[in-house]
Amino acid sequence: MEKFMQNPIVRWVEYRLPVFAFMNHQLVDYPTPRNLNYWWNFGSLAGIALVIQIVTGIVLAFHYTPQADLAFASVEHIMRNVNYGWLLRYVHSNGASMFFIVVFIHLFRGMYYGSYKAPREILWWLGLVILLMMMATAFMGYVLPWGQMSYWGATVITNMFTAFPLVGDWLTTLLWGGFVVGNPTLNRFFSLHYLLPFMIVGVVVVHLWALHVHKSNNPLGIDMKGPQDSLPFHPYYTIKDMYGLGIFLLVFAYLVFFAPNMLGEADNYIPANPLVTPPHIVPEWYFLPFYSILRAIPDKLLGVIGMFGATMILFALPWLDTSKVRSAKFRPIFKQFFWLFVLDVLVLGWVGKNPPEGMFIIIGRVASVYYFAHFLVILPLLGKFEKTCPLPESIGTPVLGGGGEMPSGAAAAKREKS
Amino acid sequence: MMRAVMGAAAAAIVFAGLAGPASAAVGEIEKQNWSFDGVFGKFDKAALQRGFQVYKEVCAGCHGLEYIAFRNLTELGLNEDQVKAIAAEYEIEDGPDDEGEMFTRPAILADILPSPFANDNAARASNNGALPPDLSLIAKARTGGPDYLHALLTGYVDAPADVKINEGMSYNPYFPGNQIAMPPPIDDDAVEYTDGTPATVDQMSLDVVHFLMWAAEPKLEIRKRMGIKVILFLLVLTALFYASKRKVWSRIDH
User: Fold this and answer.
1) How far apart are CA A18 and CA A10, in angstroms?
2) What is the pTM of this model?
3) Nearest chain A Cα distance for residue B146, angstroms
């Protein structure tokens, strides 16, 4: 690094725009808790998934036609006639699923280790804003192939907005660009589907900015107290992230090459037909838990409020969770309720996939009530009554096995074995 | 008024439409042993050619293949001259010429396989009001895919006594609702295979579904072959990353 900084061209640039010092500060020497486990890989993976979506999406847009009579055929043109078009499309469609898998794990990791607690509330909010923007982007992207599920999914979801009093009709007409889902809807969804990912990139930058103020949380949920608690990001976490990326790409490649339509709906290979309603309208898997909550409430407006509320309530999480201890490692009761909550979300997803008949209605309602109870009842009470385990003194202590404080110089010498 | 109707329709869609179908008895779909299944899956060229023959001589009477051009047929293992000869059997409307007149000419490699009907209304008019779907994507556009299609084609039976079948409809336990507008499409020896394969209903169904899977997913073989290379590459890359990670982290206690 020092030799690199001696280079006259580097010095010329650096004097005018200290980009190398900035990168060094944020990506190379950047102090990261030394005890991060593999659950901390998912943030960087989400960033990579976003880049993959943007790159494949831009190339797909070279060949796609956002016009109601031509959109479906243009997707088939991509699949059949464009060089490696099938690969681009399958990477993009499965990439959306991979992006959501990674982001959901990232979010649950934050919940388990209390990463939303002070002073990281704004960091948490920015993450949720990214999630909401991802959902909007994914929904509009799913409409673009203009198959039966695209069309009817768009019809169902946009119709939810009619439930809002006073502005509902106006809002829905604005979304549709007319009085039904049609060509103007497709046009604006394409435009917005192209725009939103770049806005997500903007929020990601602010998310990282907020992250780098107080640095990463860690499995112990206690603050870094000095250099003995941290490692430089490079090479320790760059290489760990690369290993995680390898695993991510293996799963991704399996989907793309051997099961590209597994997560999709067969009906979307039928061109959109406003006169034929598919017997079963199901959204993409990543919306299923929310869809379940929508259907669990037998009133249109309340159902829509419930569905949006399920994501909005996450914004209040830093205050609903009243416990001062961040990590579930030291919260024996919370830990169990956390896994119960994960199970609840999975049950909601499973119910969402099935027709709302018989026992699915009852299970869906119980699981929906539990979803909100977790945030509104369990978490506030746990913070008051749960007896937490004692926290370790520092991150370095349990890692290095030594008791008490060491002079930082001595500690550093002990750690650097090389 | 229009708005109120749309709003009511919308509400009905959201809250009734989602309620799912009245579940009709649907037959258990039997899993077939397809050569294109699995990681090393490949199309069987002989089955593809037989399947194309079934399509051409039986299905094409009612069903189009709007995304398949004659040039694509070389992927079935036919050479260019054979495909040109097949194309030449068809007449295509082209034009307008310099005088502004439409004219017909023999099909060439670049042409799409001609559709059996001029438009959807003509198709309905000849089919008792039902629209025979285009088959280009049918193998991907039905839940159960090729297995479902095979079960459907071979699944025609007489309706049980308590089931009333409408005029012009047939009973098929695999079809949602059990009443299908398509009459049993293939009988034994409906085609004569040039390779001597006995043309049973089961064999012809297997062959035509094989062909339709190719029509729906023509890049399947390329995709799977590339997939094996990509996975092998990624396994080595990931192993190297893992080894590097171990090496780097061995510098410190953790």
Assistant:
1) 10
2) 0.91
3) 12
